[in-house]
Amino acid sequence: MTPIDLAPAASSQLRPSDIRWWSPGRIVRRAVSIWRRDGVGGIWDRTLAEFGYRRIELLRIEVDPLSSDVVGDIQLDVLEHAQVEEYLLFHPGHSRVDVAVRLQGGDVCHCARREGRIVSVAWTTMRPHVVRYVGQIIPIEADEVYLYDAFTPPEWRSNNLMTTLIRSLAKQYQCSGKRHVIMAVRRHNRSMSRVAAKLGARPYAVMTSARRTA
Fold first, then answer.
1. Residue 120: what pLDDT?
2. Percent composition of the chain: helix, strand, coil (DSSP 3-state, to 5)
3. pTM above threshold 0.85
C-alpha cells in the first residue's frame, strides 16, 4: 500500500456552522466518547488532526463474491427527495441544503429500515468526491462506486446492519457493471474497520494532510 497523490480540493470559506466552541467539560466528554468507540489510538489521531496532520486509508471492496442476504425484519430502500426531513431527524448533523445538493447531483442515500424507521444509512456516488477531512479529491473509475457517510446509531451497531446494507447496494451496482466499492476510513475507526473486514475490503492507498482544513 502506497501513499496516493490526489488533487487538492477547492478551498472553501469557513462557515459559522463549522465553528465549535469548546469548554473543558466538552473536551472531557468528547475524549471519553472517542475512547469508548475507538480507544486510545482514536484520541491520539484526533489530537494530531487538531494540529493539522490527518490520515485516512482508501479501501477497495470486490462486489463479485458478496452475498446480499437481508437480516430479519430489515427493509432496504433509497432516500427520496420527499424524505429529506425524515433523514434530518435521523442524522441531524447534516443540513437540508447539503442533502438536497447530494440528491440533485445524483448521489444515492441507501437506507436500512425497521418497521418503517431508518436505522442505518450509507451514501454512494460515481462522481469524484471531496474528502474534507484531508482536503483532497478521490477520483472514481468507471467500474467503481464510492461509499461515504455511512452511519448507524450506537444502539443499532450490534445488528450487522451496515454490513448488510453495503452488501445489498454492492449487488445492485454490480448489475450496472460496477466491480468495486471504494471507501475511506480513518485510522482506529473500529466500527467501520470491522465492517470493512467482514466485506473483505483491502487497503490500496493512503491519503494524508499536514495542514489544517476547514
1. 95
2. 35, 30, 35
3. no
